[in-house]
């Protein structure tokens, strides 16, 4: 059976058995948090448990590396919406150790794309159009520095109110241990954990 049908079969049973009832909440984050985290599969259940979050407690935004690559992209827009429209009053950036975005080689990613059928002409056209594929595909070298950069991007955004604390943390993907990199309540750098 293909993955889609497996998912749909599970969903039919989930709805018929009314398993959704335990997750009922509204659209507003009960703990007033918006969390930007990495999409790593190890964090799907670990991150909320490690942070003491249950369904409805936070707006959870996930992407590769918990990065904001552009101040006017969809991640920043989601954070702005969380603050102004969905009652989030604090933001947490949570990256993790052993991240797949650490030291990503953009050229290797493009080689994989070509192996999967993306033509060299397409890549050349994108570059000729001024798209910095190398910068866009690059990850980071140091996870704590990456968190600092993302926190600063959020804090310095002209549409984010200055009274919203923006915290930066790193989680261990095996133990769930959180290390504070930036304490958004005023301490620029948190003590080493």
TrEMBL record:
Q: How is the cofactor bound?
A: Binds 1 zinc ion per subunit.
- Keywords associated with the record: Metal-binding, Zinc
InterPro entries attached here? Carbonic_anhydrase (IPR001765), Carbonic_anhydrase_sf (IPR036874)
- Enumerate the residues binding Zn(2+): 38, 40, 96, 99
- A single Gene Ontology molecular function, please? carbonate dehydratase activity
Cofactor requirements of the protein: Zn(2+)
| Family of this protein | Belongs to the beta-class carbonic anhydrase family.
Name of this chain's protein: Carbonic anhydrase
Instruction: Give the species.
Output: Chromobacterium phragmitis
